[in-house]
TrEMBL record, chain A:
The keyword Repeat applies. Pfam families: Beta-prop_WDR41. WD repeats lie at residues 54-75, 76-123. It comes from the Eukaryota. InterPro entries: WD40/YVTN_repeat-like_dom_sf (IPR015943), WD40_PAC1 (IPR020472), WD40_repeat_dom_sf (IPR036322), WD40_rpt (IPR001680), WDR41 (IPR040102). It comes from Astatotilapia calliptera. The gene is WDR41. One of its GO terms (cellular component) is lysosomal membrane. Keywords: Repeat, WD repeat. GO terms for biological process: regulation of autophagy. SUPFAM superfamilies: WD40 repeat-like. This is WD repeat domain 41. PANTHER family: WD REPEAT-CONTAINING PROTEIN 41, WDR41-RELATED.
Amino acid sequence: MQRWLFFFCKMGKKSPVLCIGEEQPKNCFTELQVLKGHFDIVRFLVQIDDFRCASAGDDGLVLVWNVETGERLQELRGHSQQITAITTITCKNEVTLNTSLITASSDRSLSLWDPDTGNRVQTISDLHSSVKCLLVLERLCVWLSGGEELCVWNRDFQLQCQRPNHSDTGITALIELPKNYIAAAMDKKIMIYSLTVSADSSLSVAEIRCLSDHQDQIRALINVNDGLFASGSHMGELILWNATEWNLLAYEHILWEESQDYNQTEIRMGAPKPSEMSIQHLTTNGNLILAAVGSGLYVYSVQTRSVVAYRKVAHDSNVLHTMLLSDCELMSCSEDGSVRMWEIQDLPLPAEPASSGFFGMWSFGRSNKQSGPPSKKVIDIPNIRMLELTGDLIGHSGAVQMFVSFTEKGLVTCSADHLLILWKNGERQSRLRSLALFQKLEERGGL
Amino acid sequence: MIGSPDVVAFAKEDEYGQTSPDPWPLPEEFSVPLYPLADSNPWAKTSYAKFTKDFILISEFSEQVGPQPLLTIPDDPKVCGTFDLNYFSLRIMSVDYQASFVGHPPGTGYPRLSFVEDSRVVLGDSKEGAFAYVHHLTLYDLEARGFVRPFCMAYVAADEKKIMLQFQELSLRFSQASECLKAGNRRAFAKELQRKLRDLEYTHSVLQREEGLQREAGPQSMYSAHAVEKANELANVEKSIFEHRDLLKQISSYHRRPRRDPHAVTCQKCVDECLSECEELLNKYAKIAYPCGYSEKAGKGEDGQGHPRGQGEDDDDDEEEEGVKRKLSYTPQLIKAKSAKCFDKRLKTLQELCDKTFYEATVALLKETERSFRGDLCYLYTRRLDKALQRKQRVTAFLFEEDLSEDDEDELGTLRPFCAVNHAVDNYVLLNPPPIVLTPEPHELDALERPEHLDPASETSVTQESELGLGESHLESSPSDQTLETQESSEETKGSFSSDKSGVGLAEMQQGLVSMKSEAPDPDPDSDLTPDPNHNLERESSSEEMETTAGEDEGETGGHQTPVSLLEVVSELEANREEECEGVSGSELLAPIDTACCMAQEGFLYEASAPEAVPRLCQNSHLQPSQTLVVNQEPQALLPLQDDYTVGSPCSESPVTGLELPSGLLGDAVSRTSAEDGSDCTMSASTGSDQTASPLGYGAVVTLRQRKKAGQGALRFVRQYPFAIQALWCLLSGRTLVVLGADEGRVRRLVAALALFVPAPGKCGERVQAWLSCPFTLTDLQRWKLIGLQRVASPLGSSMLYSLSRYSRYISILDADQTTLRCPPYRGQLLTNIADHRTYIRRGSTYFLHLQSTLCHLAAKAFLFTFTHHLHLPVSATEGPEVVESRRRCFLQEQLGLGEEDSQILLYLSQLITQQYLQPNGSSAAAPSFSFNYTTSILYKI
């Protein structure tokens, strides 16, 4: 036992992976609830409203949870195979806001669910191919499904129009652009479609442009703000696009480079494997773009077009999902089963952090795609900051696929170990419990 | 002398008159008298008792042999030692203040069942050094004199004070037992009546048929002696049917009677069941036993067929009623005019008198009573205090105390009926009592019938036919009958009957007496004691006792001579009855008993019991509220009767030796162990921990014995390991402790010892996992607060180590092999007194008690903390959570004097209390939450 303890303690020092230890004063998640119900990997979490969320995964089940109590509210059964995409769709009835769930599954069906009753309101089966992504356009009261073809549906699940696809991989991601344009990621290209509503209120989809600046498969596609969207590829390219004119604003190729003063005894391959640079996930709050690159994290400032902070080895394994809590706080989860919380801190010294790796990057503007100021060399920027680990959540025994934050109500994580964990602030919970206790005491009129 | 505190105290009192009332008076239950037994040595009293410890004695006043002990609880001869049970039975039975009025009071028609309340007496025999709480009760027996059998249950102890002080509770417990016995007895009695009524009915039908035959044979012989005899006999049977129906009514009206006994609480469901059962029976027999109806039908049958038991009639009935009445599998028997002698008749045993279930339940109840009264008065008193306290702490008791079983509520004085048939369980057997199946013996009637009638089915069909026939013809007359019934039941206590019936009833009453008397001397071949008690009993109960008979001997001769012999007997009896009818008034009941048929012994017995007859009579006539009489005097010299008991009693089939009689089958082992328990318990009364005596509800649950043993283990742990205090802190502050080791026994022992410190371990220790040999997950950590983990040197082991290191922030690891502990540092003071490795406590049970008191103290603090509003919630709207937080910290640190780590214990306990309070059953749809905190661990070594 001593040996392994020793090993464990040493691990923190020797391994490149961070080990924060057990003292985490900034970590407020001191209570957890394990939510059981799934039978297979849980891949998706969707927030329905401010206290409910839905989880879906490879078992084809969709479960609706009350985040405040940890109760399972509904069990939506219907899909026979794994769920490939899930999203919420909000209908504004006269008074009420009605949120429903749309799910897509490998059994080539699409379903609309009412999370209040657990009813399957609509369903479409026998599609040509399984749907890989969903996009709801609230403005037009339609929603789109992307797979091998792009389909546009109205709220009643009637197909408005569709557009076959020539790519092998099909559409993997869809985002909405201004002026009824839509960007779809297909393998190495980004297709821009325009959605036009004709006089008789019928819809049509037209292919407008194909953006093919990525050298590798596009893994992530997000809207940054009204004028920008970003995409990330498997080999670590991060491209910032103009959302209206669809031209390239910035191109960053993230390369983790071996640092010289890094432990020499460790044998590494000369060039990093592409998977180590793959951009798994992109997230943004408008000012910053957070990219999950391999097992590292990369924070990019939209204004300055420069890197703000980075950490090459943030997790033991690939980072699967990230979130920016604020301009200086972020969170990531990984295949190693942990969720980590980070803080972007100013470096204590102007000296470069030499501990965990060297950041190398070329950034260059492409002349043929004109306009947009060429991005600066980030290495030169002195005000680079540091990602400091402030806490980690260990509970899952499999890869943490995704998490959803309910701010002060807690954090829900889902994992390959079939579980969801609800992480909460213990102090808040105990306060709530005390409140309930005294309420009950009052109702009963004493003990 | 002057300075001695006593004197000062008295002087002060004198000076100021009365002292000012104590502003903080102790609650009633805490005020222990300082010098309770100033005058005497508390152990002196028990010294000359001939028995070693208290026991319960059940005795009977047998009408054959007088008072005799039936059974003792515990059923161990050692307990009674040289104590003379026979003599003591005589003593206790001789103070029966129950009203046992038997027979019919003037003005009533039928023999009355006496509804007597139990009586409670405390009786002392200082010569024997025995004192007893004596509870008399009366059970019904159709065959017994006056239908009653007096019994008594006595709690015999050497300590008079114990009995006197525990009187209320003893009375309560014994009342429950008595009610249970009586409930079972009523059931059995009703069943017996049912059988009897069937038999009578059958006899009646046979007689009628025979009478009709005679009438047919020649109208000139209408007035022949034979015919008159026949008619008399028939009338007799009819009366007897009426009588028995009336008895059935009475027994079913039992529950409507207002109870005078405040302790007599019965299970309402049982009552309802029994009532409905009786009603059902009554309805049934109201139809069947309507003699006129039957006779008409029978007459018709005979008219039509010309032969009383014509083939055609039977066939018809077979066809008609087969489906309907198939279920009646009981074969009725002719009632024989044999008159057994008093002493040949085998009286039913207590088991037979009561339903088996009820008897067993009663014995179990008494056993539990015996168990709960073990130990001396002081011990009982402390235990009661303990329980009363625990009951008041329901909110926190779940933390470290075992929860009280439900029965303990009784001790509070709440009258909770004891139900023999646990009514939570659906008990259909008792709801619909199983049909009484008697082996259809080749009846003599069958012998004289044609061969095809040999099968029992055809025989039953006879009764069936009669039942149905009666049912039909009864229809028009039933309303009146019903009204009569209700009248009776309402006016029962007054004993008023419709006048037309009363005359007959009186006569019939006498007949009943005669019947008992007359059957006594007749050596009954049936009643000698066939080894199978069930069959024997059934047959006896159904066929004995009544004077009409279908003689077995006639069966062989065949033909229709049966009535002849029958009539002879009956006429004899008739004459007898008439005599008595003239001579004896209904109220002087005891007189006819002293007749020739009673042997000298019997006579003596009645003499002996004669003094009681008077109070019985008067008590019954006024139905006094039951009062508890305390007779505490030396016994008068009584005739030595023991020899008679043991030798006498012709019904030696039942082992009357008293002690061996009862529950030998299952009782032995149990009672023996429990006896040991008891002695242990009395011995270690100082070690208190009492909870041995909370008897029910601990099946596979952690028993006190285990806990005491664990106390030893815990003491050893504390003395052996310098880091014990840290381990205890982990457990108490809710951090899961993993005991890692290769040796299963060692790990299990450690876990068992440490389980004492797990707050809210659950009833069966659900929060503790003694031995786990696979890697654990987060949910396991959530479920278990103490885990024994196997250390294995294999790939599995490495994955286990991985899970250990992965979840290391949630757990503390105690390595049993290398004696190390990895856990957050603890620097508090709260636990030093229970985890002092230099402790002077040497005994495990002492340590256990010490521990209990400390934990109790903790629980009290946690309670205070949990339910203090301002420590958790803002007092005003302007206050933020920080203010509350600082106030809480201030409370914990300054008012309770707890450091950071000690506060964690309290916070955890408080959290448990809150959860328990919000969800008392622990069941909620939501997953349980698991709290932890992020602190570094350090490794402790020896």
